[in-house]
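hey so i finally got around to running the thing on that chain from the lab meeting. sorry it took forever, my laptop kept dying and i had to restart like 3 times. anyway pasting the input first so we r on the same page abt which one it is
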Amino acid sequence: MPHLPILGVHPYLLIGAWETNAGNHAITEAGRLGFAAIEIPIQNPHLFDARSHRAALKKAGVQPLCTVSLPRSIHLPRT
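ok and heres what got predicted. didnt touch it at all, straight out
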């Protein structure tokens, strides 16, 4: 049997902005809709509620795919 790719969803198709409650809602909806993964934009690491999201991911049976947006001041220089 061939290995099938994981199909995920970007949360902004399900919610307007990522914060704890909305993020958990997006995770729940991703699972309900049959997605195996959800992209999690970590735009404010100091506000990210990993414990809450971990529980929501486990309950929904969804894998996280995290992305981080870095401010321009700390981006790697172009070579």
